UniProtKB/TrEMBL annotation:
It comes from the Bacteria. The keyword Oxidoreductase applies. Residues 21-467 form the Aldehyde dehydrogenase domain. Keywords: Oxidoreductase. This is Aldehyde dehydrogenase. Belongs to the aldehyde dehydrogenase family. Transmembrane segments: none annotated. The active site is at E244.
């Protein structure tokens, strides 16, 4: 059993002052894994005070100096890669090989990319006789979820710190392993006291942080429901808000698309991290006439995705994060079964390990546009297939949810796919399976949020513009 009972405040690891704790369980063995002491209002107070005290000095350092700290943090994190990957496997349930690459190595690379992009993002510009300077927004409250914990923390921290902001991070209490490693990395990199403070806790710790008058901006990643509350709380206090929220992303297969490639992409995107991915493709929109062919290919494709212990090299799907989340996802599947959609793959196809928070992947076909499964984020291994007759209909289906985080379009003509991609109201669209680009803006339309992370765009979220008119 690991005890995470300290917070990083003003350059020191300090024991939590509150009494509240959470116990988390290994998602595969269901054994108790760790206890986490929640930050109290007093811990939040101390963290914000330290951040404010550090701000004048940190914001006046050069961009190059701040970028050098980011690189030092990346190096210190890299030395802890295996430990962080192991913690993500135990807490979140992602298979080890994928966890190491996606949950650890990719975010470490993002610390370095952000450092490399900082000078460009923060350069002063001229508009006629005005000098436009880019100033840090101030003290940032960063609130993050558990599903890709280091990635989500990095997207906020690297950008905010290099912009000259000081940060109080309130990460999810459900994935504390990478947070402990990050605190160690910040200390090892000798980040000046108070520039980064980390107070772990649950929702009430987050609420205390947002309500604190010393916070200038809230950068939140998590559910749309929590995002609404946070935006309301921050809005009432006139704090800037950036929100990275949920999704119900669709992949459109045009009639001339490569069927096998479409199916492979949809399954790997939907089932990655057992569906616990905000930008997962959770709807596949296919031509009505080709539905039987897609149905068959999906069934076969799913059989190749081995579910099992995430520490086994052969496993592609691990368990979900917790018993509570498994119940939530299972309830969605049961309701879809009762609704009598075409069950392309159901739980009888899969043998689940005897222990662990596993859920068998499910695929439902001919799901109506207004169905719960077509409208709501399940956050589990569940794919909804929808059909269309005309391109207009396909675009309307893809755009027909409150969300707009990601999407995909497939066609033998990349030009045709691009024309359709331009019509999708979502923040990231992949044409014919083009890969993720960490330097491109990432974020959502509508209920998927506001603001962007990634590359120079992510840094811009943390700046205030100042125009200085010069005499002519
Ligand atoms: P969550 O909303 O329950 O919690 C996220 C974080 O916010 C946690 O640290 C939690 O303690 C805190 N929190 C919750 N309510 C709060 C409140 N009212 N005030 C202050 N803090 C509060 O989400 P989760 O279950 O941890 O994560 C899953 C969700 O995150 C999914 O909906 C997923 O789509 C979304 N997500 C979005 C992105 C993105 O980039 N768009 C990325 C990852 C996850």
């Amino acid at each position: 059993m690991i005890h995470y009972h300290q917070h990083l405040i003003d350059g020191d690891m300090r024991a939590a002052t509150g009494a509240a704790t959470t116990t988390i369980h290994d998602s595969t063995t269901e054994e108790p894994l760790a206890t986490i002491a929640h930050g109290s209002a007093a811990d939040v107070e101390a963290a914000v005070k330290a951040a404010r005290a550090a701000f004048a000095r940190w914001s006046s350092t050069s961009v190059e100096q701040r970028a050098a700290y980011l690189l030092a943090i990346a190096d210190a994190l890299e030395a802890q890669s295996d430990r962080m990957a192991d913690s993500v496997v135990a807490e979140v349930g992602m298979p080890l090989k994928l966890a190491l690459r996606i949950q650890v190595q990719a975010p470490i690379a993002a610390w370095r990319t952000t450092a490399a992009r900082a000078a460009e993002a923060l350069a002063e510009t001229r508009v006629a006789h005005s000098l436009v300077t880019k100033e840090p927004v101030g003290i940032v409250a960063a609130i993050t979820p558990w599903n890709y914990p280091l990635h989500q923390i990095t997207a906020k921290l690297a950008a905010a710190l290099v912009a000259g902001c000081c940060v109080v991070l309130k990460p999810s209490e459900l994935a504390p392993g990478v947070v402990a490693a990050l605190c160690e990395a910040a200390l090892e990199a000798r980040l000046p006291r108070g520039v980064l403070n980390v107070v772990v806790g649950d929702r009430s710790t987050g609420e205390a942080l947002i309500a604190h008058p010393g916070i200038d901006m809230v950068s939140f990643t998590g559910s749309t429901a929590a995002g609404r509350q946070i935006a309301a709380s921050a809005g009432a206090r006139l704090k800037r808000v950036a929100l990275e929220l949920g999704g119900k992303s669709a992949s459109i297969a045009l009639p001339d698309a490569d069927l096998a490639a479409v199916v492979k992409h949809a399954l790997s995107s939907c089932m990655l991290n057992s569906g616990q991915t905000c930008s997962a493709i959770t709807r596949l929109i296919v031509p009505d006439a080709q539905y039987p062919a897609y149905r068959e290919q999906l069934r076969g494709g799913l059989a190749n995705l081995r579910i099992g212990d995430p520490r086994d090299a052969g496993s592609r799907l691990g368990p979900l994060v917790s018993a509570a989340h498994r119940s939530r996802v299972s309830a969605y599947i049961e309701r879809a079964q009762q609704a009598s959609y075409d069950e392309i793959a159901d739980d009888t196809q899969t043998v689940l390990p005897a222990r662990g928070y596993f859920v068998a992947p499910a695929i439902f076909g001919r799901v109506p546009a207004d169905a719960e499964l077509a409208q709501e984020e399940v956050f589990g291994p569940v794919l909804a297939v929808q059909t269309y007759s005309t391109e207009e209909e396909a675009v309307a289906l893809a755009n027909g949810t409150p969300y707009g985080l990601a999407g995909a379009v497939w066609s033998a003509s990349a030009e045709h796919a691009l024309r359709v991609a331009r019509r999708l109201r979502a923040g990231q669209i992949d044409v014919n399976g083009a890969p993720f680009n960490a330097s491109a803006p990432f974020g959502g339309f509508g209920a998927s949020g506001m603001g962007r992370e990634g590359g120079t765009f992510g840094i811009e979220d943390f700046i205030e513009l100042r125009a200085i008119q010069l005499p002519q």
